[in-house]
Amino acid sequence: MAELDTIDIESKHLKMVRSVFARHLPYKQVWAYGSRVKWTAGHASDLDCVVFVATDSEVANAKEAFDESDIPFEVQLLNWETIPDDFKNNIKEQYFVLQKIGSWKEYRLADFADINPTERLPKGTIAKKIAMELIQPFTKKILSYSKEEYKGGMKFKNSDTIMARITPSLENGKTSYVDILDKDEIGFGSTEFIIFREKQNISDRHFIYYLITSSTIRNAAIKSMTGSSGRQRVQIDVIREHLFDAPPLLEQKAIASVLSSLDDKIDLLHRQNQTLESIAKTLFRQWFIEEAQDDWEDKPLDTIANYLNGLACQKYLPKNDIDKLPVLKIKDLRSGLSEASDWAASDVAKEYIIKNGDVIFSWSGSLLVKIWDGKICILNQHLFKVTSNQYPKWFIYLWTNHHLRKFTAIAKSKATTMGHITKGDLASSMVVIPSDTEIKDMSKTMSPIIDKIIFNNTQISKLESLHDTLLPKLMSGDVRVEYEVAA
Description:
Layout lengths: L10 H14 L5 E4 L1 H4 L8 E5 L4 H12 L7 E5 L5 H9 L2 E4 L5 E4 H4 E3 L10 E5 L15 E4 L4 E3 L4 E4 L10 E3 L9 E3 L3 E6 L6 H9 L1 H9 L12 H5 L2 E4 L2 H42 L6 E4 L5 E4 L14 E5 L1 H6 L7 E3 L7 E2 L4 E4 L5 E4 L5 E3 L3 E5 L5 H10 L1 H10 L9 H5 L2 E4 L2 H41 L11
Parallel strand pairs: 2-3, 7-12, 17-22
Antiparallel strand pairs: 1-2, 1-4, 5-14, 6-13, 7-8, 9-12, 10-11, 10-13, 15-24, 16-23, 17-18, 19-22, 20-21, 20-23
Helix pairs in contact: 1-3, 9-14
């Protein structure tokens, strides 16, 4: 038996042949044999093929499709089950695999998933609402929702995938999987969502989520956008007709299982960090608010830490695609760096370089204090990098966070579009300072909590990187997963 690696057909014509087989004999094994396999064919010679485990009607439909195609030679197709044994032995001596069992099939997206399926939710009904701002970029899990009166919007149920159709939400990766509803419950959200739902015996609900987040669909959706600048929307009719290849259902489930396991681990670490953050803030309040000692020293906030303001990074444009770093802006502090993030030259002063674990405080616009959990980047203006040579990280982080509500009120009171605080507001915010011994004792409890948060953030980054590497490879078939053919 000799399975050959090449065949005497131009690559464009080979692709056309395989496309017909993928549409009309999906998941069937197909071999080529004869003169084009032996490289003895003339220019107009037939391509001789044989298909395994197919019915006569399936073979007839494929033959008809080849007759109507633009392939510049005839394709002869036989059913392996109906040919003599000696002919089978001749074919086995030299053949070329045109299509393997379980090969991927070409689909229109509208044939693979229900797009904006109809659901009934009477107006005036109080239902769970997922607003656009509650969808986190490239995050499968929906973390929160509100309950509101339904007056309009896109409707969905559990297991649906919701994708933003408007710029810049789509480019920023706002796509999630719905699992916050009860059985048979209907939720709703922005009119700027597109809803995708599995088709029975064709697609898997989790696979659809990963398909929609992959470049296979995302790029097509982004390219289809039309409308005025800043308000462009995906053309749903274009997306419905988009063609792509997808694996058999069992392989879809196996692919989704691999990616879901990574997402589940990422979600677990995020939830663990939320718990650790809550514990740290509870201890802080107990020690420094409820049980603060009268003999502890009072100091202004700006004396316990250095609040370094960021750079006007537009003045530091990168000279090439190598010596550059992404710029951390206010919006990135909440949602993370994205494909749309700005870049600046990496040869800025080292104190402006941000790494995982650094304390960052946005003092303008949407105020937030956060332990940075993303990639190495450059500090932009309107952000403080908070550091101290005297006090531990947990101390400066939690005291800055403690005054956040006051700072937010100050920023909102400013008669500007983008409210902000000043260094003077830091100086007027007081901190109580225990003795060095007491701080060391507190650090025995608090530092491991902060260190664990930072460690978890590192693990999250590694898992997200692995996820981002695997997703396009699994969705294109460049990397295949093993799965049981039989249940």
